[in-house]
Amino acid sequence: MPTVAELLERMLDGVFNEPDPQRRAAVIAEVFSEDVVFVDDEQAVTGRDALAATVTGLLAQGPGFVFTPAGPFRGVGDLGMRPWSLGPPGAAPVLGGLDVAQVVDGRIARLWTVLDR
């Protein structure tokens, strides 16, 4: 069973940095529970399809931008946190934040994204 750290890493690379919707959907099915809840400053969505649509919208806002880890993984039990930054490859980030994930039965069941201000 993957660790919380492994799931967050796979999520960043295979979901939030994956431009192909079919490949992204396959990783979402692998990493997230069927009834995953995703919460950020703008919305709360439930389910893999809603998460996929949310990610598609986020990627459309910054074509070519990439998410990169911006600090070490921290966690306890079934909770994990990882800071990230977003921006053009090789350039200064335009946004940063923190993902907090709760894992249930080897998949991310809840994901909160807190943006840096």
UniProtKB/TrEMBL annotation:
Record Pfam families: SnoaL_2 (PF12680)
Domain of life: Bacteria
N-terminal signal peptide: none
Gene3D superfamilies: 3.10.450.50
Chain ranges of the SnoaL-like domain: 9-110
Alphabetical list of SUPFAM superfamilies matching this protein: NTF2-like
Identification of the protein by name: Nuclear transport factor 2 family protein
Organism: Modestobacter versicolor
